[in-house]
Amino acid sequence: MAAAPLPMDARRPSHTFGPQTIAAIQRMAEEGHYEIRGWGAKRVLPTFDDLVFLTASVSRYPLEGYRERCETRTVLGARRASRPLELDIPITIAGMSFGALSAPAKIALGRAATAVGTSTTTGDGGMSEEERAASHLLVYQCLPSRYGFNPADLKRADAIEIVIGQGAKPGGGGMLLGQKVSDRVAAMRTLPAGIDQRSASRHPDWVGPDDLRIKIEELREATGWEKPVYVKLGATRVGNDVKLAVAAGADVVVVDGMQGGTGASQDVFLEHAGIPTLAAVRLAAEALRELGVEDEVQLVVSGGIRTGADVAKALALGATAVSLGVAPLIALGCNGRTWVRDGVAHDATADYRALGTEPGYCHHMHTGRCPVGIATQDRDLEARLDPEAGARRVANYLRSVTMELTTMARACGKSDVHNLEPEDLVALTVEAAAMAQVPLAGTTWIPGRS
Amino acid sequence: MCGIVGLHLKNAELYPRLGELLVPMLDCMASRGPDSAGVALHDGHAMHVVKDVGPPVEICVRNGIAERGGFQGIGHTRMATESAVTTQHSHPFAPTPDMAVVHNGSFSNHATVRRRLARHGIGCTTDNDTEVASRFIGHQVAGGADLADALRMVLKELDGFFTLLVTTGTQFAVLRDSFACKPAVIAETDDYVAVASEYHALAGLPGIGDARVFEPVPEEVYAWTR
Ligand code: SF4
Questions:
Q1: Which pLDDT score, from 0 to 100, does residue A174 have?
Q2: C-alpha span between A8 and A305 (Å, rounded)
Q3: Which part of the chain is the Glutamine amidotransferase type-2 domain (chain B) (predicted)?
Q4: Per-residue pLDDT, A230
Q5: Which range of residues forms the domain containing residue A57?
Q6: How far is the CA of A370 from the centre of ligand 1 (A)?
Q7: Model pLDDT for residues B53-62, shown as the tens digit of each residue
């Protein structure tokens, strides 16, 4: 006998006012402020997963995995800098501040990048001694806040990245809540400890491309025209912004899509500002092509890149390299159930629960109570992360991603990962076909073109 | 998937027989390329390109190729891979009035190189990968590069599998990619240099028994100058 059906209206969720929305409204009513959190956009977005490769078969031939070389070497910044960055792999580590991250986390990222022959990046908080020592190639960010920005560190950097925006919150400034502003962090930023910090959303000494040109020249002069100058953009009006960055003199343009992560931001930014990385990379590549500088100015793409497949797709669509932030943190142990000391694993589930979350769902960087010692300034918590073991894990991860990348490139018949091209891709959805401007699988149709 | 042949004559007495020697070589390659065929002949005054859809012998007969003389020629039989079977898409491709290129293999980044050439004002008339390579070589030579250097640039810029054969008013050159998967054999005597995708295309040449026969090694440009 069939069970009695539920009454028609029982537990019928509203799409507009679903349980999450109801909870959010009630929390705002209770507390009187918007939600701040870490991580990145959590909503479903068109991604690189909506593209697939047309690998080789009869009309083209694949390369052998063992015997036949697939080059991954990557040069960034040769346009104007006398000492461009020479990387072994087209995968770099994105800017994440000491402050948002613990010292052991920054050391681990630097050592991992060094081990695999790539660069890592400072963040909104300056360059720490440990980080400089751990990183063979270190990109020094110049942010609106100018926290910890000084001529001495400028000279110790290998490249300079002028940050105009980031994908997680294009148009917004950095944020570090008081619980993470330790004495050391405060000293590096010349600000009081324990107070919420909201970084500027505009640079203090210039706005717009005309003045950016002067700023870039100033930085070049200060560093003897040696170091590449990157300009990092949060992906919004990508076509215009990339062209303006090039006109202002950038050697490298970094475009960060809306899936990019952050230590803390308003939820409204994370979910509602910027465009997905998939659309951003294509627009940026197109802008460089329209200017005829695609072989001169390198495009670095970031925002939600996780696997070698993502890297391969970004490269095929026109990036020279990618930049990873959240993924290396996950490799370090973020959202892991345990942390390890002296070979003994300790369960952190209770600490996640204390934050109101579970391993696998945590986005609580903003609290400074990171259960695995990554996004914290708390002495006891940061001691949970062993930088050496962490570096090994991140290096393993980066090597695996590189192997995935070369596997795909070889299967497409490429002896250099940079020879991947848009024509190697088709899309599984109409949205992805339109955003990436590649044909919908099984057709020759590119929305908007034919 | 395609057959290529070429003949660079050193002995002037053979010049009147260029077409007569080249046509059987091309016919031998018919099974490698049943879709279309073509030749480019240098007679000392100009380069003549003849290509069409159909079996090589028919095309050669129709155009009286066997009766033509010259000091150097190349030929191609095509099995189309990714672009259409038309006369336009057939080899040889002539990027300049004096240069022609035939190719066996397939390039894997020709769309990118095509865009790069377009930036320099070099347009392609077809979507064929070999046309891209031929225009790339033509562009390098027009920019002052020696043919051998232009071919070395192919190794740098073009990815994929290829054996390339190039004829110009003064030079004859062969290049295989680093994998050297697409076959090629060269026979050299005091009278000529002959190139083909397969040995049997060379078997009927005069004095072949005494020729130095070898397979070109990967990434090495072999060039002969008149
Ligand atoms: S585990 Fe730590 S690093 Fe990962 S999301 Fe939570 S707080 Fe952030």
A1: 83
A2: 43
A3: 2-226
A4: 98
A5: 48-340+388-436
A6: 5
A7: 999 999 999 9
Residue with token string 């891709």: A425
Q: Is B225 helix (H, G, I), strand (E, B) or coil?
A: strand
DSSP E strands: which ranges in chain B? 2-9, 36-42, 47-53, 72-78, 93-96, 99-107, 160-167, 171-176, 185-188, 192-196, 212-214, 222-225
Q: Measured between CB atoms, which of A294, A295, A416 is closest to B159?
A: A416
The pLDDT of residue A178 is 87
Give the closest of B82, B111, B179 to A421, CB-based: B111
Is B181 one of the annotated active-site residues of the chain?
no
Task: Give me the CATH code for the B3-225 domain, please.
Answer: 3.60.20.10
- Which ipTM score applies to this complex? 0.90
CATH of the domain at A74: 3.20.20.70
Nearest CA to ligand 1 atom 4: A334
Residue A29 inside a domain? The answer is no
Measured between CA atoms, the residue of chain B closest to residue A295 is: B116
Given the residues B2, B28, B60, B124, the one annotated as active site:
B2
3-state secondary structure of B60: helix
Among residues B53, B54, B104, B45, the alpha carbon closest in space to that of B74 is found at: B104
pLDDT above 80 (res A450): no
Instruction: Determine contact, residues A70/A414, Cβ cutoff 8 Å.
Output: yes
pLDDT for A2? 65
| Residue A356, in any domain of the structure | no
Nearest Cα residue in chain A from B82: A59
Number of domains in chain A: 1
Question: What letters, b where the CB count within 10 A reaches 16 and e where it falls short, cover B111-137?
Answer: bbbbebbeeeebebeeebbbbbbbbbb
